[in-house]
Structure formats: structure tokens, C-alpha cells
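Lecture 7, part B: from sequences to assemblies.

Below are the input chains for today's worked example.
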Amino acid sequence: MRAVDVIAKKRDGHELSTEEIAFFIDGFTADEIPDYQAAAWLMALYLRGMTDGETHDLTMALVHSGETLDLSDVTPLAVDKHSTGGVGDKVSLVLAPLVAACGVPVAKMTGRGLGFSGGTVDKLESIPGYRTDLSVKDFKKQLAEIGIVLTGQSADLAPADRKLYALRDVTATVESIPLIISSIMSKKLAGGAGAVVLDVKVGTGAFMKTMEDAEALAHGLVRLGTQAGREVVALISAMDQPLGWAVGNALEVREAISTLHEGGPRDLREHCLAVAAEMLMLCGKAGDANAALTLALETLSSGAAWQKFRQMVEAQGGDVSTVDDPEKLPQASIVEPVPAPRSGYLASSNAVEIGRAVVALGGGRDEKGLPIDHRVGVLVHHKVGDLVQEGTPLFTVHASDEAKLRAAREQVLAAHVIGDEPVQPLPLFYRRITA
Amino acid sequence: MRAVDVIAKKRDGHELSTEEIAFFIDGFTADEIPDYQAAAWLMALYLRGMTDGETHDLTMALVHSGETLDLSDVTPLAVDKHSTGGVGDKVSLVLAPLVAACGVPVAKMTGRGLGFSGGTVDKLESIPGYRTDLSVKDFKKQLAEIGIVLTGQSADLAPADRKLYALRDVTATVESIPLIISSIMSKKLAGGAGAVVLDVKVGTGAFMKTMEDAEALAHGLVRLGTQAGREVVALISAMDQPLGWAVGNALEVREAISTLHEGGPRDLREHCLAVAAEMLMLCGKAGDANAALTLALETLSSGAAWQKFRQMVEAQGGDVSTVDDPEKLPQASIVEPVPAPRSGYLASSNAVEIGRAVVALGGGRDEKGLPIDHRVGVLVHHKVGDLVQEGTPLFTVHASDEAKLRAAREQVLAAHVIGDEPVQPLPLFYRRITA
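Predicted structure of the full complex, as C-alpha cells:
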């Protein structure tokens, strides 16, 4: 078999066989197929599309490029959750301890932020000392001992996905639904998940900008997971405005801690409870939605979720005093509330623009591998539909210097549209998709 | 400007600007844009297609990647010819001296064979001592002195085309009509051609398999040349069976020499005369087709074309005794005529299969840079439509060893189809396309 023939076959719109896909991924992983051939292949896959069979074969080839975790000695059914990424999405920080405190072991590997979209690993690293580079052995040990792990993606799992993603990033082949599906699912399958809840975001602050794309992605993820013998549910959720109030790493950790203490923004709290209920149902901990929501609510109210979070921080080397007293988390030197320029109904709080403003403040990165400033960010004080009053705080900027403060103030002001007419609040979720 | 954005723009089907194309080719030539980005871009160009404007801009960017020849001190209008390649195509060996002997300076850079398709440089190198690596200085000096040069493509002209072609070859992006157009025309324009006759082959032994593709290529070449201010004519010619009888390097040189002596196969002779007439008209040496053909015929009959060929071989260091007595050209150790297995009408003499058989004999290469055996090849003794008689020679194999002989015999036998019904001969040319 020759790589150039596999490229030509896809170029001409034919379906690749399991063997051809495995040949290509194995060769690419072993550096036998060079980047330039993989790049041409990726563009052909992007433009010609992929069948469900090809997507499944690609996913499995990525899974088999490295180790796979077997968590069966720790839990009969490991349940995982994946968000397609957005602005202010700190759901995992609340959700993982909440579900774990319900008695369901949660072993989650998570990623870093890129561009306007934040990442859970960056947020966790706001907590001084918190380790996000656990070995597979430590990962399993901690899971067995306290029933929760929240760490970075292991380089040993699906290494071909990492290599392929780096190439997609520089060859304009990221935004392909089948390629996204195989990237997400290869990591989940390699990580040992038996059941997965997929939070597919749609809107200005998401990678999927249209409902059509989000539905295609959600359906594709559910079909693939089912084909691979996993229990899978996808929720399509709104990402036109930031989720919650905080955008920026330490600010988001503080907001997650508030939520675990039953404070925090209503949309974040409800989002976490809804996803938790799905996870509890998927793994059989609750028989129906009512029982699942009741269990999640009680576990949050009782403080058990917060205790589980605290236990996890301690186990992973984080300074517990900073989560006990979040004022001790890293803080920006400049904190400036920005007043609403007029009264009226908030019609837009553009997530992607606010996400970009936080990147410009130093709280995110445009290229992989760059360091970030965990202290900076933006707190929005209103959600779409709110009636705001001229002169009262619309948002607050946390910045490290005056020039960046001024730039962020302008950008975030421009992201807010206030009008005369009443505006309906945005929904949290649009659709729930099951096999 | 960022390479990834230019890739994404083409990926999404938008037309690239002159600046974007120049940015990409300049960056690629300077190794600032890596192969993997160029590969993704090429696949996007392949699958999304290119407008005439983009094809022109790409051609010009390739031209400007290196030196351009100015032949105006030697000739007011340099005329060139390009064939898209085929099996048994030794036209340049006859045509160049024929046109030069008519008093029109011919300065031609030509290529090597790849796959089933032969190359003029390889054929010329059958002549012991013949140099195909003239410097630009020697090239112009010889053109001024004797009015003819036939050499390899200079690495200084359109170097980006060479680099891009090497990448296309391994990324399944060769067979794109706009990419083929820009590759051909960039070399012709950089070589200083003011007028070009394009011999676009169509058939099993050509890169263009269908008339639709050949016409698209021919029209595209003519439009591009005209847009670039050149006189251009394209001929669409048949390449279902080998041109002439000989396939293989030294065998083809012998056949070209016969043709210059008024022998040789009729189809080759007519093909050369027709293309010569086009060149004579394009550069104003003849006012109409009748005058052009008359001049070409007289020049061939008079022996002047042969003398010009001989003069060129001498000027470029070739051993003249081997062209004076072609028996002295390199000869294969095994020469075996293969009889027709039955009587009947020759319905097919499959050019690509015969071309591949010669590659397998060692007379061609499947990968650039590999050496070849100039002695080996196949002589076909019949053209499609001929009535052949069982037991009389159908073709002759020239081989270096018995195993290769046997393989070639089977392959070339299978390439010949003899039937009961009379078959029409194939045409030489299908269409003539002008601006």
C-alpha cells in the first residue's frame, strides 16, 4: 500500500477501507508517512467528507496509536463528559466533584485553552501547586482512593490524535465534523470511558456556529459512541454569551467554588445540575431524570460536592487554603468595573469577543504552548435579556497593566449591545440527542 | 498574511488574490512556508479548482521565483513547443532541427521521463557525450551560433515549479488542469518563449484520458498564454497507441534519425511536419498553412533538417559518429521479434501498457532521479487498423536479460488486440485551438 494512492482514493471521493485508514495513521504515527502527505490527506478528508464507517475506523486507529486505560478494576462503568469548548465554561470544575460525591467515580482527562476558548487544565493550574500531569499509575491510584481525578490529557493516550491535531491546526483542517468526532472520541475511548455525556456548544462563542453543524456533530458523536459500544448522550447547549459570569482562569475557579457552595450564577448552576443528572442516569445511579436531579441537588446542597472538590485539590497537590479562602487565589493588580453606557435591555454579550478580550489580557493563548496569566479576565454582570441601568457596572476587567485594561474595556464594551426593546433570555440547552 | 488563512480561503471555495498567491509561492520557495502547508493548499486547489485569474497569478509567481531568459538579442520572437507527454513521442528530436533549418532559431529546454511517459532529455542522453546540462550562458551562445539548442530544463528557471511539482507528485495533486497549466506555462514563459505550440495528447497513453479534459487543458493553456501576451496554438493529438514504432530511448533516437532522412514511420513524420508548420506560421516565417507545410517538407527533403540535427549533436558534445551510423548507438543484448498470435485487424496497441513494459525493461523510471537503461525498449510493427498476419512479427523487444524479456513479451502481447472486423485507423490530430 502507498500513501499517495490512499490520498488519491479519498481525493476522488471514494470510501477508504479500515486497512487503508489504519495504514495511514500507523505510518503517520511512526513518522513513516511525512506531514506533507498527511496534510494533503486531511484536506481531501475535509473537502470530500467521511462516512460513518471511515470516522469509526479513524477513531479506532487513533485509539490504537497508544495505550488504552482499563478502569474496570476501579469501577464497573466509568462515566466521562466532554464539552466542545466555549467561553466561561467551567462546568467540569463543578460537575466532576458533584457526580463523584454522588458515589460515581469520575476520572477525567481534560485539555488546555486555545484561542477564544478556555481549557480546564489552565483553570485548575490557577490553584497553586495543583498537578495536572498525573501518570497513568497515579491517575488510577487516586481514582481508587477518592473516586475523582481531574488532570491533563496523558501523552500516552491516543498520541496520533495529538500529532494529527497539531497538523490540522496549521493546515486549515480543524473544522471538519468527522475529524472533530474522531479526535474527541479517540481520547474518550482511550481513556476508558464506558459512558459519555457530550456537551455540544453552538453559537458565536463555540466552534460550531450553526445549529445545523452542532446537530451534525452531536448526531455523529452519538452514532460513533454507540457503534463503539458505549452509552452516549449529547446535549446541544447555547454558547452565544459566556456561561456564568467569569471568563479567565482564577476568576472561573472562584466562580466554580461559589457554585459548589450553592452561590454562583444561576445558568452555570443549572447547566452543571443538568449534565450531572445525565451522567447519573447513564451509569445507572438514577433511574430517571427526576431521581437524578434530586440526587444531584441534594449532593450539592449537602456540601458533599464541595468536600469532594477540596479532597481532589489536596490529593493533586493543590494549596487547599486557596480554595478554602478564594481571596487567596492569584489576583490581578487592576480591577476596574465598567459602567453601562445606557439603560435598556441587554441584547447581546458576544462570547467570542469577550473570549478574545481575555486572550488579549494574557488569560489565553493564540498558539499552543504559550504561557498564560491566570489572574486576568472579565466578569460580566448581566445576561442577555437583563434590564440594565446606565452607570451601574456592566462588567469588570481584571488586568495586569493599564494598556491592556483600556483595550479590553473597549473590546468588551463593543461586545455588549443594549437596546430599547425587551429581549428574551437565551436558553441553556436546545436539544438532547440519544442513540 | 498567514499561510493558514490562505489555505482556509481556498478550502472554502473563495478566489485568491494576486497578493495571496504570490505570498504563498514566495514563502514556499524561501522555505518559510513548510511542505505540509503547501500540500494542504495544493489539495484545496485541486478539489476547489482555480479561476483563470488564479491560474495566471500562480504561473507568474512561479516564473518570478527564478531567472527569466531574454532571447531578444538572438531572435525577435523565440518559438517553442511543448508536448504534454506520451509513449514514443520523439517529436522534438525531429521538429527542433526541422524548424531551425527553416531559419527560425529554436531554443528548447525539455524534461526527463516519468512513469509510462518518456522524456526528450533521456532520449538525447542515448547519444554518447551529448550534454543536456548547458548553462544559460552556453545556451544563449549556441543559439546565436547555430540557431538550435535542445537541453535539459535549467534549475535557475522557475525553481518553484520544480519544488511544487515534487510535492504534487507525492501528494496526489498532479492531475489538476490549472496546476498542469501553470507548471507548463511557467517554464515556457521563464524560458523566453514569445510563441508556443502546445501538443496536448489525449488517450490511454496520455495524462489526459478524455477529450473533455484535453480540451479543458488546451483551452486553458491558450487562454493563459494569450493573457500573458504570447502567441499560442494548441493541437489535440491522439495518444492511444505509441507515436511511431519505437518506444525506448536509443530506439527512438534511431527512429528520429530515420525520419530526418525521410524514412521513419508515416505517423511520426506527419506529426512533426504539422507541428513544424504551426511554429512557422506562429513566428511569421510562413503566411499560411500551405506555405508553411511546403517549407517544412522542402527542408526535410533537402537534408537541411538532418544537417541541423548533426550540427546540434556536435555542438552539445555528442559523438557524431553514432548518429551518422545509428548502428553505433547503444544496443540491447537481446533482440526478439514476437509473432502475431492470430491474423486479423489490429484493434488496439495500448500505449500506456507498452510504456509500462518499457519502464519494466529498465527504459524508464517510476521515481524521479533513478537511472535508466537507454538500450532497451519495444518496436511495434503495426498501427491500429492494420491487417496483421499470424506468425509475422507484431513487435520486437529489446531487453537486457531473459526474465525482463519474458515479462515484456507478455505485457506487450496483452496490449495488442487483434479482431475479426476491420478497424478504422486512429487520427493524428483531433482539434486545433487558437485564441
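Note for the exam: The longest strand of chain A covers residues 195-202. Keep this in mind when comparing with the next example.
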